[in-house]
From TrEMBL:
The lineage of its organism: Eukaryota, Viridiplantae, Streptophyta, Embryophyta, Tracheophyta. One of its GO terms (cellular component) is vacuolar membrane. It is found in: Vacuole membrane. GO terms for molecular function: ATP binding; sphingosine kinase activity. This is sphingosine kinase. Residues 114-249 form the DAGKc domain.
Length: 249
């Protein structure tokens, strides 16, 4: 709040720039900067583009998930193209105090979005083309780490295992459950939850699905409803941003 709208001299990944962190305007807070000599202003929407942010010394490192053409007209325009992880290092001309203030404001904004912090991830290594475990290591884990999500991972070892896990999982330890699978494991998970004596409370647990099966009908329709394409990284990013199957968002 204290830094809302103020323009500050920075270096962004080494290039001198003027940057603004606006948190006071209505709509989604955003980070905008204009590099010396550049024509276009660049912007990141905290809600739609940013995974996490940390201040360290006089730097603020912002981890984002954006399309290559990150220069977009503000505010919060949807990026075209495939998103990938990018890191922006803002070195504050005003030093450590300014970096700490920005870091605090960014974290405060990100925290206010109600994103999940602790996820239980269930992976079916035998679903679809049997690539779920590789997909997890290569694409899912790095994104969740960049977003600072604490993950407990469990691979299903046999048919019916997901149902068993869901029927006895200590749900208080998690903000959500994610299936890296097709529809079969997802159905088992829901059935396991419905089998619990506390099912009426337990069924409120947010559930997400990352497509790693054959048909992936559920992942496709959920991502379509959220105007996202059906890719692993889009599904993970939707989960990081707090979209889940049961909330219907
Ligand atoms: N370790 C395992 N060994 C054998 N079968 C398993 C194992 N883990 C889960 N399963 C079973 O695999 C079945 C299919 O899984 P899943 O839905 O993930 O993939 P899929 O059938 O390829 O995808 P879709 O359902 O989207 O077409 C599930 O019903 C589940 O019971």
């Amino acid at each position: 709040q204290a830094t809302g709208g103020a323009t500050t001299k920075v270096r962004v990944n080494g290039t001198p720039a003027e940057a603004t962190l606006s948190t006071t305007t209505g709509g989604c807070p955003e980070l905008r900067w204009h590099c010396a000599g550049a024509t276009a202003e660049r912007s990141l929407s905290l809600e739609a583009d940013v995974l996490g942010a940390v201040a360290s010394g006089k730097e603020v490192v912002v981890r984002a998930f954006v399309a290559d053409d990150a220069a977009r007209p503000p505010p919060c325009a949807k990026a075209g193209g495939k998103r990938r992880r990018r890191e922006y290092v803002f070195e504050m001309a005003d030093g450590e105090g300014a970096a700490a203030a920005w870091g605090g404001t960014l974290r405060g904004c990100l925290d206010s979005f109600g994103r999940p912090k602790r996820l239980f991830v269930l992976i079916n290594p035998y679903g679809g083309k049997r690539r779920a475990s590789k997909i997890y290591e290569a694409e899912i884990k790095p994104l969740l780490e960049a977003a600072g999500v604490e993950v407990t991972m469990q691979e299903t070892r046999y048919r019916g295992h997901a149902r068993e896990v869901a029927s006895s999982l200590d749900l208080a330890r998690y903000d959500g459950i994610v299936c890296v699978s097709g529809d079969g494991v997802l159905v088992e998970l829901v059935n396991g939850i419905l089998q619990r004596s506390d099912w009426e409370e337990a069924i409120k647990m947010p559930i997400g699905v990352v497509p790693a099966g054959t048909g992936n009908g559920m992942a496709k329709s959920l991502l379509h409803a959220a105007s996202e394409t059906c890719s692993v990284s889009d599904a993970v990013f939707a989960i990081i941003r707090g979209h889940s199957m049961l909330s219907g968002t």
